[in-house]
Design brief:
The complex is a heterodimer of chains A (198) and B (88). By secondary structure, chain A is mainly alpha-helical. Chain A has a single domain, classed as Up-down Bundle (Four Helix Bundle (Hemerythrin (Met), subunit A)). Chain A has six helices and no strands. In chain A, helix 1 runs antiparallel to helix 5, helix 3 runs antiparallel to helix 4 and helix 5 packs antiparallel against helix 6. The radius of gyration of chain A is 21 Å and the shape is elongated. The mean pLDDT of chain A is 91. Chain B contains four helices and no strands. Classes of the chains: A mainly alpha (198), B mainly alpha (88). At the A-B interface, helix 1, helix 3 and helix 6 of A face helix 2, helix 3 and helix 4 of B.
Chain lengths: 198, 88
């Protein structure tokens, strides 16, 4: 389409990155840590293919599956909370979504506890072999990040209740949400890598 | 019906339903017996699709800094592909 001389060019879509740069430095450093774990896992697998052949078959797929559903749903809760605050500054509703996220995190921890107990009953221990050692290392590390996420979301919930956020001031809330979504994103890779493909 | 319609109009709700569906497919593939090269490739593609939805919809990165957006996408794609290649 031709534009008349002097006519303003069509405006480029507005760029918007949620949260602030400090949060992104933190999130990216956490993702780098997990990247090293993934590389270590894949490297050990490459060097010991026979050891990893049947590892996943001995894990509790049901636990990985349930926790995937829980994390996906918890991420949805957080996203809805942020959306509610941005659209109409509804603090009460945002607080409910964040409280639901904390409830989902509690369920995740409960399923993880049941999974580890099931593992012990079925002889899947940290000293089993290299695959199981890595499985415990990766999943326990992820659990620790969920606990950090609980503190972050808990803080965002308190701030919401205290009225620290409104339609135009959501940076802190977006930061907490970004951290929680990172935990979900890492699990999206961990689940098939450990429980399905092995 | 209207409630369903309203629910599905929100892209976050649609994404959540798709993510649940994709997780069910992955688990069904795992429970269907021995994994073939094709099923492992499908699991990797599903992981990429789930990652893309989380990055674009939940993290709201559609209009974000392109370096950050593509960096996150590459992260998910790289590890999903590596997982599939090592299983082949």
């Amino acid at each position: 389409m031709n534009r008349t001389f002097g006519e303003a060019p069509p405006t480029a879509p507005e760029r918007y990155t949620p949260a602030n740069p400090a949060v992104w430095v933190f999130v990216l450093s956490e993702m780098s840590e997990f990247a090293f774990f993934f590389i270590a896992f894949l490297l050990v697998k490459f060097l010991n293919p026979e050891l990893f052949g049947h590892g996943a078959e001995r894990l509790a797929v049901w636990a990985g599956f349930i926790n995937t559903l829980i994390l996906i749903t918890s991420s949805w809760f957080v996203a809805r909370g942020v959306q509610g605050m941005k659209r109409n500054g509804d603090r009460r509703r945002t607080a409910v979504w964040l409280a639901l996220t904390l409830g989902a995190a509690f369920l995740y921890c409960l399923v993880k506890y049941l999974e580890y107990r099931w593992n012990v009953e079925h002889g899947v221990t940290i000293r089993g072999d290299l695959f199981f050692s890595l499985y415990y290392y990766l999943t326990f590390n992820h659990l620790l990040h969920v606990l950090i996420g609980v503190c972050v979301i808990g803080w965002a919930l308190i701030q919401t209740l205290l009225g620290a956020y409104d339609r135009h001031h959501v940076e802190g809330l977006e930061g907490a949400a970004t951290y929680w979504h990172m935990i979900d994103l890492v699990w999206i890779l961990l689940f098939p890598m450990l429980y399905i493909v092995g | 019906m209207d409630v369903n319609g309203r629910f599905l109009r929100n892209s976050l709700n649609r994404s959540w339903l798709i993510l649940i569906g994709l997780t069910l497919i992955t688990t069904a593939l795992a429970e269907s017996g021995t994994l073939t090269t094709l099923s492992v490739a499908l699991i990797a593609v599903i992981a990429m699709a789930k990652g893309r939805l989380i990055i674009r919809e939940y993290m709201e990165m559609k209009a974000a800094n392109p370096l950050l957006y593509w960096g996150l996408m590459a992260y998910v794609a790289m590890f999903s592909a590596a997982m599939a290649l090592l299983a082949a």
